[in-house]
Amino acid sequence: SYKDMSTNKFLTKSEFQVMLILWSLPGKGGFTHDILALFEDPKPAYTTLATFLKILTKKGFVKSKKVGAMLYYVPLISKEAYCKQVMEKAQADYFENDPVQFIRFIAENNKLNDEQKGTLMSMFA
């Protein structure tokens, strides 16, 4: 739960970019060069990416296994599970853990079209 999570359990923007690529890989894992290949330009340096992967391993978001001389990285948390943690923490920290306040804030701060409003309403019907 969010109460047990220290700040290192959240990703920086750069770390999140790396995780998005890892989550998108067909086998849900890959080598540094596989991950680097999927970055948009300007791509980070290989060594920079390797550092991010080390940090993500230390934080417990990915695990690595040696395959020959290279490390193969696999996410230890799904995108959905990570996003759920972030949303729970935001709801607790900024909305007194009240889902109604949280949903109202999201709805009021996004330009919803009629179809989206209908979908949102049908969730509570």
Q: Low-confidence spans: pLDDT under 50, at least 5 residues?
A: 1-7
Largest sheet: 3 strands, antiparallel
Backbone CA Rg: 18 Å
- The strand order across the widest sheet is 1-3-2
- Count, helices: 6
How is this structure best described in words?
The model is unreliable at 1-7 (pLDDT under 50). With 125 residues, the chain is mainly alpha-helical. The chain has a 3-stranded antiparallel β-sheet with strand order 1-3-2. Helices cover 55% and strands 11% of the residues. It has 6 helices and 3 strands. β2 (62-67) and β3 form a beta hairpin.
In short:
The chain is mainly α and 125 residues long. Helices cover 55% and strands 11% of the residues.
List the defining traits of the structure above:
11% strand; 3-stranded antiparallel β-sheet; disordered N terminus; mainly alpha; 125 residues; single chain; 3 strands
SSE topology sketch:
Blueprint: H1 13-24, E1 30-31, H2 32-38, H3 46-59, E2 62-67, E3 70-75, H4 79-94, H5 99-108, H6 114-123
Antiparallel strand pairs: 1-3, 2-3
Helix pairs in contact: 2-3
